[in-house]
Amino acid sequence: MCKALHSLEIDDEFKRAVDELPAAPYEDLQQLNAYILVAISRQLYTLQRSLKRDFTVSERNMIAWEPLCMGCGRTDRMLRVEASSSKGSTSAPVSLKACHACKMAFYCSQSHWDAVQPRHTEDVCEDGHDGLTQCHVNQEIRQDVAFANIMARENPTSEFSWAPERAKPSWESLKGLTWETEYAAMVAKVFYIPDEAASPFVRAASVGLSMPMTILWALEHLNTDNEWTRKETLVIHVLGAYEAEINHANIFEEILHRLPEVKTLRLVLCGPELARLASPRELQQMFDMDTCPNCTSRKRKRIQRLYAQTYHEYVKTMGSAYAQPDLAVAFNSGSSQEATTSWKETMSLLVKKKIPSVFTAYNREEAEAEAKLLRAAGANLVPALGPTKNVWGSISCKKEPSKATGFWAVNGWLAGGFR
C-alpha cells in the first residue's frame, strides 16, 4: 500500500485532477462534499489499479477518513503534488494545519481557515446535538475515544452498555426532556463520579438507550391519548434486527421502567441476518429474558422471540396467527442503500395493514432517502417523526467519511413514522 500511495503522487491523471482544484475555498458545502467524493473515488480507482487487488477495510478507511481542508478538500498528498509541480511556488503550503481547539478539523492556508472558521467554531452544527458547534462535537469525539479505551481495559470483549434499574412511578411525556436531564445525575450516582464528569458516560449509554427511547418517542407521537401506556402487554416488532438489538437486549427493559402499568413487554425481532447469531433451536423460540430485581419482584416480564426472516416473510409465515404490534420499528435500516427491493415490500405491507411504524437512519441523507421510499409506498408521515433529527438518537457522534464536515450517530435521524 505504501508503494501504491507513493505512485499516486506521481500519477499523471492524479496530477491533472489536482491542477483543476480552485484556489478559493468553496462557499457551497454540498458542492465541496460532492467534489471530495469524486476525488476520493479517483484515488481509490488509481490505487486499486496499482495494487491489483481489493482494498482491506483498514486501507479503504485510511483514504476515506484522510484529513482534508475544510475549505477546498485538499489533502496533504494533494498539497505535496502542488508544491512539487511547476506551478507550485515556494510559498505554497505543503501540509495541513489543525484547529488548535479540537485537533480534528484541518485547513490548508490562513485564508481558507478565515473562510471556514465561523462555520466551524460559531455556527450550530445541524448533525451534532444540543446546539453545539462542529468544533465542540469534535472535542466530544476525542473524549469519547478516550472513554472507550478506558472502558475497554475493564471489559475488552464488548463496548460500554448501561441500562438503568430505577422504575418511574408513572408515565412522563418525553417532550422537552434531554439525555442530560434524564440520565446525567443517575449516571453520576451509579458510577460514583462528579456530575461534571457524567457526559461521556451519558453519550456512551445513549447508543443502546436510543432504541427504547426512540420506541417510546414514536408511540407518544403515533397515539392520540395515553391508553397505550396502560396496556397489560405492549408488543414491539423490530425489523431488520441484528447485532445491535441482540447485544443491547437488556436495555429494552427501559420501556418497562418508564411504563409502570405495563406488565409484559413482548419483543419480536425479525431479520435475515439473525441466522448468523442464533442457532436453529433458538430461532422462533419464546424466551423469558432476565429483568431487574424490581421488575422481577412485581412479576413483570420481558419476552423475546427471534425470526431469521424479512418482516413481510414473517407476516406471511404467521398467516392467520399474525397479530398487529403496537409499533413496528426499523433501526438504521439502510433501506435506501441495501436490499431496497425487499424493504419496499415490507414498507408496502406496513402501510397496507396500517401498522404503526417508525424508521431511523444514521444521517440526514439516509433519512430523506428513506422518507421518499416510505411516501412512495403510500405512507402519510407524521411531521414530528421525520425526516428530522431524532431527539432520542444517540448523542455519541462519529465523523462522516469523505466529507469536509458532518457527523452520523446511531438512530441519529428519524426517516419517518406513520400509522
Strand order of the biggest β-sheet: 5-6-4-3-7-8-12-9
Fraction of helical residues: 40-55%
Summarize the biggest pleated sheet: 8 strands, mixed
According to DSSP, the number of beta strands is: 12
Strand content: 5-15%
Gyration radius, in Å: 24 Å
Structural class: alpha/beta
Number of helices: 15
* Terminal residue distance: 51 Å
Low-confidence stretches: none
**Element string (H = helix, E = strand):** HHHHHEEHHHHEHHEEHEHEHEHEEEE
Mean pLDDT: 92
Characterize the overall form: globular
Give a structural overview.
This protein is α/β, with parallel strands linked by helices and about 425 residues long. The protein has helices at about 1-10, 10-20, 30-50, 55-65, 75-85, 110-120, 135-155, 180-190, 200-220, 245, 255-260, 295, 310-320, 340-350, 365-375, and strands spanning about 95-100, 105, 235-240, 265-270, 285-290, 300-305, 325-330, 355-360, 390, 400, 405-410, 415-419. The mean pLDDT is about 90. The strands form three sheets. It has an eight-stranded mixed sheet. A two-stranded antiparallel ribbon has the order 1-2. Strands 10-11 form a two-stranded antiparallel sheet. It is built from 15 helices and twelve strands. The radius of gyration is 24 Å and the shape is globular. Helix 1 (about 1-10) packs across helix 3 (about 30-50) and helix 8 (about 180-190) packs across helix 9 (about 200-220). The termini are far apart. The relative contact order is 0.11.
